[in-house]
Amino acid sequence: MYHHDGHDLFVIDGHMHFWDANPENWKNKYGESWIKCFYAYHSSLSPADAVWPFDKFCRYGEEALVDDLFRIGYVDMSILNSTYLYEFYKNGFNSHAQNNVVKAKYPDRFLLCGSFDPREEESGLDAFRRMVAEYPVSGLKLYTAEWRNGSRGWRLNDPWTYKYLTLAQELGIKNIHVHKGPTVYPLSADAFDVHDVDYAATDFPELNFIVEHVGLPRLDDFCWIAAQESNVYAGLSVAMAFVHLRPRYFGEIMANLLFWLGPDKLLFGSDYAIWSPKWLIEKFMAFELPEDLKQEYHVDLTFKTKRKILGENTARLYGIDIAAQKAKLSQDGISVGH
Amino acid sequence: MRDNVPCEFPAGYDDTAILERLAQVLDPELDESILDLGFVRSVQLRPGHASVVVQLPTSWCAVNFAYMMADDVRRALLTVEGVRQVTVSLGDHCAAAEIEAAVNDGRPFAEAFPGEGAGSLAALRLTFQRKGFLGRQERLLRELREAGCSPAVICALRLGEVSVRDDTIVIRQPGCAPVEGGSAEVLQRYLERRAELALDCSPAAALIVDLQGEQVSAELLLAHYEAARTVRVAMEANGSFCRALLSLQRLDAAGPSGNTNTGGRDVPS
Fold first, then answer.
1. How many angstroms separate the CA atoms of A279 and B225, rounded?
2. pLDDT mean over A177-181
3. What's the pLDDT score for residue A190?
4. Nearest CA distance, B203 vs chain A (angstrom)
5. Which of B65, B226, B234 sits opposite A218 (nearest CB)?
6. What interface predicted TM-score (ipTM) does this complex get?
7. What is the CATH number of the domain that holds B39?
8. Which chain B residues contact residue A220 at CB under 8 A?
9. Whole domain around residue A240: which residue ranges?
């Protein structure tokens, strides 16, 4: 909960990780360079006092996670993303099974995202059904750039993806988080391309597509799609981190998002542990859109809009009643300080 | 940034041509010179043989774009008189060995990375040249607006009515006093890209055209500008992210070895 001028802001971190990138878990040089690339993002955009040593960054563990999010980071609930990367990490980087360890311990604090890989075709459909039956999966996180058996990625409008999306919908899943942003090993085509979201969003109007990292580095293409598709949302992680070191660009990005998408489709995410919610939220709340941008874009980042971005918009997508959830959380182990 | 590149040239060698050609190599995604972005880590010339170290912001920078930049460096330097061979190194990039082997041998991307998709790099490059066109045009529109030109005036302008004097744009329309204002460099960058895209550059052509070369009407100028503005912001934000990542690498390279536990610091954006 973030307190501001007598108001409580309910915070949902829409994008965070509980990963294991310990050197023992590296399968090859890619496991090492992957986490080092994340660490470069972390070190280059975090305030100096929020930079961790590399070994902690590789495996921070449950206690640090609970502290950084809920005890000092103002976060009330958060969405665990699953990113498998079995070709880089022996036990996976961040699987739904790993994530479920903290979810099971603090069930009201987390929303767990599962995943699928359409390249598993028929044989993966059963595994997907089992995952949804056995784990408390409330959304999906899709990672189209993942390597698999020589393939360097897949697209949301592939025929097998549609079969999985159809099944997900039958199983009652509504929210699909799609990683679009800094990616791994692009093909000669543009692997950052976001246009596949457009097809899937049109063909699955009952599903919500949350484009993580607002399509950066393809912010422009993302904006055209999100402006046209009522079920496409902006996940703000990565963009949020600009607020500290590049406030002007943060302002320009926010002005563009508010201009094309409006205040109801923008969702806060920290990308923890790349960046920590404490400083992100403090700086975000202190940030004011520069006057020239307000005038040029005819938008503003008001307190009301910030409150929507930090929690209300995501609560709406996941059907969370904020008042009821607050009451539940006030009784849990984290709030009462065990 | 280009003053900071360590260079090693034979005694008395005039390095102007080499640095000028390198300055023309762009990061295709960011539409900025790789020299200005700080990607060129060193340049060395031995008789007939130039060696360039290019360090990208992360080892996971897109392989296709990394190939393009390395290949562009090679091609640019082969146009310098007396340079017969070019060796490009990509530092710790995740595909450095494969890219270097192909580029330094003059082999195309598709041959170096078989199976990495059928799309050609030329199509990818064109996509980003077109984005760059819009970004450059947005900056020009901003300059013209700040010089006091109305949408009607801007949309009526012909290329032949716009010129530069020193660092400033000069507009001469029939029956009007000349108007001066705006950066000549912004205009020149726009016109260069317009020519690269083979859009009509004759004196009678409209100054502001869309990607199909069609004149933009005064009624549609605002909507056109708003879209171009987002393209420009996206490119600049990406460039800013790359610079932040690169500044960290530079500090690591300069400082003691070990982990980068120094935190974000301000660098010019």
1. 35
2. 81
3. 64
4. 32
5. B234
6. 0.91
7. 3.30.300.130
8. 131, 227, 230-231, 233-234
9. 2-329
